[in-house]
Design a protein that fits this description.
elongated, mainly alpha, single chain, Ferritin, 169 residues
């Protein structure tokens, strides 16, 4: 009899324990989904930004003026300038392609120069190309690219100034 009482008590405790466990089950609360409006990308139309294409045309013309054999001290400066112009053109071609522009679309040169001195014409073309390439950029990648392009143009400008100084000696 003692065992049956112990069993009955044990069974009763199990029933009570099970009932208390079911009362402890926590149901998750319903969450409310909130949708946020995603900001639109800024409108971009490559045709509205022709500056690099104009700068490329000026750089090509400056390169044509500088890529001529000359006396030795000037020849080194010309090579330095042509190398810097080529580096700027390569960066600009990459940017034009990524913007959906045709980098081989030759525009007329912006700078109106006389036919007296090719070094001074090249300087004017480099200055115009720098003005065109310096327009404000709001894309961080384009700002870095623009900085590299301006560095190459400035490097070519210094080389042409050095060529003028060497030619005057």
């Amino acid at each position: 009899m003692k065992q049956s009482v112990v069993r009955a008590i044990s069974l009763g405790l199990m029933v009570i324990g099970t009932a208390s466990l079911s009362a402890c089950v926590v149901q998750p609360t319903r969450t409310q989904v909130v949708y946020k409006q995603v900001p639109q990308a800024p409108h971009w139309n490559p045709a509205e930004h022709p500056y690099y294409l104009h700068a490329m045309t000026d750089l090509r013309q400056a390169r044509w003026l500088l890529a001529r054999p000359d006396v030795q001290p000037v020849q080194d400066d010309e090579r330095w300038a042509v190398g810097a112009i080529d580096a700027a053109l390569n960066e600009m071609k990459q940017a034009a392609i990524e913007d959906g522009k045709n980098p081989w679309d030759y525009k007329p040169a912006d700078a109106n120069v006389s036919n007296t001195d090719r070094f001074h014409k090249a300087l004017q073309l480099l200055e115009q190309a720098r003005r065109d390439a310096s327009h404000p950029e709001d894309d961080p990648w384009a700002k870095g690219l623009q900085g590299r392009i301006l560095h190459h143009i400035d490097d070519a400008h210094r080389a042409v100034q050095q060529a003028i100084a060497d030619a005057l000696r």
